[in-house]
Amino acid sequence: MTIAKKPIYFLTVLAIVFSSFAAFAGGGETSSNEGQINTQEGINAYIKHHLADSHDFTLYSYTNDAGERKHVGFPLPVIVWTSKGLKTFMSSSFHHNDDGHVVVEKEGVKLAKIHSKIYELEEGAEHVSFDEHHHATNAHKALDFSITKSVMGMLLAGLLMFLGFGSLARGYKKGAIPTGVGRILEPLVIYVRDEIARPNIGEKHYRKFMGFLLTVFFFIWILNLMGLTPLGFNVTGQIAVTVCLALFTFIIVQFSGNKDYWKHIFWMPNVPVPMKIILAPIEVLGMLTKPFALLIRLFANMTAGHFVVMSLIALMITLKSQFGAVGSTGLSLALALFISVIEILVAFLQAFIFTMLSSLFIGMAVEEHDHH
User: Fold this and answer.
1) How do 117-121 and 139-141 pair as beta strands?
2) What are phi and psi of 368, to 5 degrees?
3) Which residues contact 242 (CB under 8 A, 6 or more apart)?
4) Distance (Å) of CA 68 to CA 29, 61, 170
5) CA torsion, points 251, 256, 262, 265, in degrees to nearest 10?
6) Partners of residue 60 on adjacent β-strands
7) What is the pTM of this model?
8) CA distances (Å), 227 to each of 100, 105, 154, 255, 307, in order?
C-alpha cells in the first residue's frame, strides 16, 4: 500500500504543475499573440492577475479559428449595492473583461469591472473615462458583496470541514476508533491538542480554546492546499482574509486576559514606577503588533509561494531564446515541480505556525502568575 501511494502522490503533483503550465500557455487577459502570454509584461500582468481575487473561474482560454478569444470556466454571482439599491447578476455579463470597456446596465445603473473591482458609472455616462494613470474619472466603486473566487474557496473549505468533522463525530458514536475520513482527522486533532494547545495554554485552560484552534488550523491548511490546485485559489494570499483571522485571535486574547495579563501591560509588578510609565506604552504597542505579525506572516508567505511557482513556470517563456523550447520547458518543469512539493509542506507549516502563535498569545493572556 505504501509503495502504491508514492506514484499516486507524484502524479498528483505533476498534474498540478502541468495544469498550471496549460493555464500559462492559454490563459490571462494580457497578450501579444492571439491571447497567448509570451512577453515579460504579459507574464507580470498574469502573475498579478493570478494573485488577485476574481469574480469568476477561468480554467483555460484559447483562440478559435475566427480569431475570437474564448474562456472556459464558470461565472460567480455579482452582488453590489449601488446608488439605486442592491443589484445582482452573474459575472458572465462582463464577458471576462477587466479593463472597464464592457458596461453592464441593470435597472438604470451602469456598472463596469476594472482591475477586479466593480465600478458604478455616473449619471448620464455611457462608458468609463480614464486619466493618464488609468483611474476612472466618471465612475466610483460600488459596495461589493459578491461571491468571488476567494469567498467560494472559504465556503468550500467550510463545507469540507463540516463534512469531515461530522464524519469524525459520527465515528466516535459508533466506537472508540473512528472510521473513514475520521481516521485521517483524529491524529491531526490529537496533534493540535497535545503539541500546540496543551504546551502553550496549559492543562487548566486549553479545552476552552480547542474549538477555535482546530478551526483556524484546518481552515488555513485546507485553503493553502486548495491554492495548489489548477482552480487558482489564493485565499490566504488576500490581506483581508488574514486580517480577519488575526483579528479573531486578537479579540479572543483580549477578552480572555486575566488580571495578571492586564497588570503586566499597564502596571508591571515589582518594577520601579518610572520604568512602569516607560514600559506601559511599549507593552500596549506589543499587544497590537502580535496580530499584525500573524496576518503579515501568513499573507506574505503564501503570496510569495504562489509568486515563485508562477515565476518558475514562466521560465519556459523567458528562457526560450537561450535554451530552446525543450530546454526551457524542461528546466521550468523541474524547478516548478520541486517548489510545488515544497509548497505542500509550506501549506501545513503556515497553518501550524498561525495556530501555534495564536495558542501562545492566548496562553500568555490566561497564565496565572505568582508574584511572591
Assistant:
1) antiparallel
2) -100, 125
3) 236, 294, 295, 296, 298, 299
4) 13, 11, 52
5) -50
6) 72
7) 0.82
8) 28, 34, 11, 33, 12
Residue-level pLDDT, tens digit, the chain, 372 residues? 444 445 554 555 545 544 444 445 444 444 444 455 666 676 777 777 777 888 888 777 777 777 777 777 788 999 999 988 899 999 888 888 888 888 999 888 999 998 888 999 998 888 888 888 888 888 989 999 999 999 999 999 999 999 988 888 888 877 777 777 778 888 899 999 999 999 999 888 899 999 999 999 999 999 999 888 877 788 998 899 999 999 999 999 999 888 888 888 888 777 788 887 888 888 888 888 999 999 999 988 888 887 887 777 777 777 776 767 777 777 778 887 888 888 889 999 999 999 999 999 999 888 876 655
CA dist list (Å): 25 to 30, 143, 290, 308, 313: 12, 34, 42, 17, 10
* C-alpha to C-alpha distance for 273 and 38, rounded to whole angstroms: 66
Closest to 47 in 3D by CA, of 318, 293, 326: 318
122 exposed, middle or buried (CB, 10 Å; 0-12, 13-18, 19+)? middle
Whether the Cβ atoms of residue 114 and residue 101 lie closer than 8 Å to each other: no
- Cα 310 to chain center, whole Å? 16
Task: Give me 233's grid cell.
Answer: 485559489
Which of 46, 11, 52, 28 lies closest to 233 in space, CA to CA? 52
Do 301 and 350 meet the contact criterion of CB atoms below 8 Å apart? yes
- Residue 270 has φ and ψ, to the nearest 5°, of 60, 30
Residue 12, all three cell numbers: 498528483
For residues 87 and 218, give the distance between their C-alpha atoms in angstroms, rounded to a whole number.
34
Contact predicate 113/98, CB 8 Å = yes
Size (the chain), residues: 372
| Structure-block grid coordinates of residue 82 | 449601488
